[in-house]
Predict the 3D structure of the following.
Amino acid sequence: MSDDFKKPKEDTTELIETYRKSIKPISSYVDAAVQRVDDERSGRVLGLRTRYESLNKFLGKYFRFRNIIGLAGNSSAGKSYFMNILVDDFTNPHLNPDWYDKVIICMALYEADPEDEIIRMASHKLKQSYSHLTSSEFNTQTQDYVRLQDNEFEMFKECVKEIRNKRIYFLPTNGDIWTFYE
């Protein structure tokens, strides 16, 4: 076994002290737990719903605030497509009337840059493929790539005007996972 796996890469004393300050007894959290149960029973909404009732039920009513849920899968598995649906749902006044105008979305991107993600968002809204919007659909009859038409480009620009006003932030870390880890 390599020595890299036997020894910590850095002194962990400072890290341990940071966590030690965060450790509190259970009694420090009891009142907050009681309050959360009271909020839920009173009907206060503490999360965001989706259009998928089965997913909402699976999650215990909605995506609860204070939770982090990771979405993972192979490239082209549909993660971005599904995330764009969730972004639409989380900012939908009919699904989330208490929160739609207060939601701030932060997306950590590992495979694509923010521009690609914006094109994917528009592709979802316009019901056009990413390939179509980026003029990369290949036509086997003409043996050439199909270019986006002027009217389609104008529709794309209108769509991204709406996207521009959403409260979405990006943490661009595109590259491979090892680059992010370092």
Q: What stands out?
A: Residues 27-41 form the longest helix (15 residues). The two ends are 21 Å apart (CA to CA). The chain has a mean pLDDT of 84. The beta strands are 47-48, 63-64, 105-109, 137-139, 144-146, 168-172.
